[in-house]
Design goal:
about 130 residues; elongated; 2 strands; mainly alpha; 6 helices
């Protein structure tokens, strides 16, 4: 099942909330994403059907291995681009919003190359500082 950006956003939100709170319910996701509870209910049903998410008897949400992988990849991109944009002088609120859009459209290959380029750049800075 191909995920849309909104599905990735829901998985990312569940990952972030689980790290903060331990347990996550649909209402937590609605507050975090500032969406309605019916929107979350629809997204949860879709994500469950796609094998990304489970809900237990107490209505807590749990990422499957597949859901966790997508969420972690999305969150990594989000943090990377937010940090890069802020470093470039972009206002943090704008950087956060733009990173959220970029994380969904960038190819895996391009993202990996950007990460590698950043590492090389950081090594070059460290080397020049040691000289």
């Amino acid at each position: 099942m191909k995920l849309h950006a909104s599905g990735e956003d829901y998985l990312e939100a569940i990952l972030v909330l689980k790290k903060k709170k331990g347990m996550v319910r649909s209402a937590d996701v609605a507050r975090h994403l500032e969406v309605s509870k019916p929107s979350v209910c629809h997204a949860v049903a879709t994500l469950k059907k796609g094998g990304f998410l489970l809900m237990d008897g107490a209505h807590f949400l749990h990422l499957t291995d597949l859901g966790r992988e997508v969420a972690e990849d999305t969150y990594e991109k989000h943090r990377f681009f937010t940090e890069m944009l802020v470093t470039a002088g972009v206002d943090p609120v704008t950087a956060e919003r733009d990173a959220c859009r970029i994380e969904h459209v960038i190819s895996k290959e391009t993202f990996e190359r950007l990460k590698a380029a950043r590492k090389l750049s950081e090594k070059a800075v460290i080397s020049s500082d040691e000289s």
